[in-house]
Specification:
Neur_chan_lig-bd, 415 residues, disordered N terminus, 7-stranded antiparallel sheet, Neur_channel, 12 helices, Neur_chan_lig-bd_sf, alpha+beta, Acetylcholine Binding Protein, Chain: A, 2 domains
């Protein structure tokens, strides 16, 4: 009774569902017959028997497509790994058959232990965790009616990069890497094996690694006699640094430049603002250095922050010198000697000529506020052409120019 019920249910299912049709059942039987015909208990490590002519024509082709490149990661040892689907195909005349003998079946799929495949010496195959994923994963091998066989495993491929270059360089320095794909190990009896690979355009790859922080600029092949060299140009994706590094650095750089030209404040306020900026800059250096200091080249961001620290230190030293000038007789005498030497030097004449011909508009208000009689009574007083004024304006000018140049270069490198 039970068997009759099962038969009725099965019959009704086959009547209602297309996969249970007689044609599909017959086709599946023919595919099974074809597999049994082609591969009777064949060892996957043993190459199908080829005669001399077939050996001469035998070729292994590696195909890399842009949408088969999955991810790029860096392990704890600093090794760069490329996760990708590497499709291998090879021609073997012994795998050919007449489709008419098998209900016009043009291809059939196998598990990996049913068909021989090349064993690459460079990659590690990633096996999924779930049993269902494993069963799906191992069905990537296919034999076509003309003898074409394909196997597309997902590989975890290490890239060897030049020592003097760094993939963590900021903001986005390009570096070159390579991976040598050697021929299969158990095929020493095969005289000529060629490995070919389809190169994908760089534009199709640039947007793949925005999540991991990398951009693959190009991936191309260099063919050797028994090996193929994959060359990759990689760089950090600058967009991943935008919120954490780029914006804070540009803002603190502009703030440092603006602070140099603020209206005159009391020495105490100037020093507090100056050393507050230095503290913020040092904190940024400490935060970013753990990620960037191991780079082989001095990172641009750390160089810029260091230059801003030096500029603020020079301004702080200048303010401290001005305060000491008012409270110390020895400092006042030292400054008088420096100002005397400066006033009789070529530098003073050049500064005066530059002021009159180029920056006279900037000193008009200053000249109106300064009393010449007072400046003669107090030589240490800051006058438009005194040594103290010249040193201050020179430091501010060069620090501002260098800072703005570095900030502009920094922004250009991010493009």
């Amino acid at each position: 009774m039970t068997s009759s019920l099962v038969s009725m249910i099965a019959g009704f299912s086959c009547f209602m569902l297309a996969p249970c049709s007689a044609a599909n059942t017959f086709k599946a039987a023919e595919e099974l017959k074809l597999r049994d015909y082609l591969l009777p208990a064949r060892d996957r490590l043993v190459l199908p028997v080829l005669d001399r002519a077939e050996k001469a024509k035998f070729a292994i082709n590696l195909t890399i497509q842009a949408d088969h490149i999955l991810d790029m990661t860096v392990d704890s040892n600093g090794v760069l790994w490329l996760d990708m689907i590497l499709c291998m195909n090879w021609n073997a005349s012994s795998l050919m058959w007449d489709p008419r003998d098998f209900n016009n079946v043009t291809y059939t799929a196998f598990y990996t232990n049913f068909v021989w495949s090349p064993i690459l010496e460079v990659h590690e195959i990633i096996i999924p965790q779930s049993a269902f994923a494993i069963s799906q994963y191992w069905k990537f091998r296919m034999v076509s009616w003309n003898g074409y066989t394909e196997f597309c495993p997902q590989v975890h491929m290490p890239l060897s990069c030049a020592i003097e270059e760094s993939y963590d360089a900021f903001p986005a320095e390009e570096f070159n890497c390579n991976a040598v794909i050697k021929d299969v190990s158990p095929m020493s009896h095969i005289q000529h094996i060629s490995i070919n690979e389809g190169t994908s355009p760089g534009k199709a790859m640039r947007s793949f690694f925005t999540g991991s922080g990398f951009e693959l600029l190009f991936l191309q092949r260099e063919q050797g006699k028994n090996s193929a060299m994959l060359r990759a140009a990689v760089r950090r994706n600058s967009r991943q640094w935008m919120n954490s590094v780029t914006v804070p650095v540009i803002l603190i750089g502009l703030l440092s430049c603006i602070s140099l030209w603020l209206p005159d404040q009391t020495p105490t306020r100037t020093l507090l603002f100056c050393f507050a900026l230095i503290a913020i800059l040092l904190l940024q250096i400490q935060l970013y250095s753990r990620h960037l200091m191991h780079c082989s080249k001095p990172p641009t961001v750390l160089s810029l922050l260091g230059q801003l620290v030096v500029g603020q230190l020079l301004i702080g030293i200048l303010v401290i010198f001005e305060v000491s000038l008012e409270n110390s007789d020895s400092i006042r005498r030292l400054y008088a000697q420096l100002d005397f030497v400066y006033s009789h030097s070529v530098v003073h004449k050049y500064a005066e000529w530059t002021r009159v011909n180029f920056f006279g508009w900037a000193f008009e208000k200053f000249d109106e506020e300064v009393d010449p009689n007072e400046s003669q009574k107090n030589p240490q007083e800051e006058t438009p052409m005194s040594f103290l004024f010249f040193a201050g304006i020179t430091i501010r000018f060069f620090v501002t120019v260098v800072s703005l140049y570095n900030i502009l270069s920094f922004c250009v490198m991010l493009l």
